[in-house]
């Protein structure tokens, strides 16, 4: 038997044993965990349709785990999940007490997604997941724990996930109010910008340790700029399905030309983040970079990747704060 096959069989056995233990040890009576058709009884739950089918979720879920998505949307709804695969970003901390933030358990495995064992150890009564493609987690866990899954085509589709999770949590009205307030801020921005919106093009650029990318209208920040009425350079003014950014060689750096450029670096580890910052400094001293008119006019602004590269209403509002700051000279 090959090592890979042996490893696969071993993992399958361990997963099976874990699922059996969770079903056996769950505090709720067995008939309340699963009906014969794999769903909770309708008298104690409500059906929520999602991208992988429909699920009967508890009327008032208490132990929520969110996978593959930022904490942003849940925190905006006043929900404190028990577990997540997302990092606790600093801009969320004002919405949580220190104890609440520390109580959220990390259930991820770096680069491979959630740890099923860690998820099940929290005994969740609802799992919310944003899946990029097929969800193996749903296949493994949906027969044990109610799951609602959203499969977006791009990072710019953050609103459908936010609204679907709100539906699963019974917080549709709260979510609609959050988006109404967000839309009102965008309307104010557009009104105050007036005709300037027709005469300014914005580049969104990310510096990697070994490369440069520009973000498209399908990206999170790109979708916000589009909603704000801001134009993009031709190379960035497109919305290909399933793609958020494109890499560019330094020799083609002219495609970044714009009236204003927002730049950020990012790294999943501190070493990568530092390397990206070093790459940005190196680029700023490159003669090719200096050929850009936006550079010569000093219209480049480094913005925090934590929310420009975010996903959810809190991050979106912080991006709008920056739009007011840089275009209308109005600090948040």
From TrEMBL:
The keyword Ion transport does not apply. It is found in: Cell envelope. Its main location: other. InterPro entries: ABC_transptr_periplasmic_BD, Bact_iron-sidero_bind. Keywords: Signal, Transport. Residues 62-331 form the Fe/B12 periplasmic-binding domain. GO terms for cellular component: outer membrane-bounded periplasmic space. One of its GO terms (biological process) is iron coordination entity transport. It holds the Pfam family Peripla_BP_2. This is ABC transporter substrate-binding protein. It comes from Myxacorys almedinensis A.
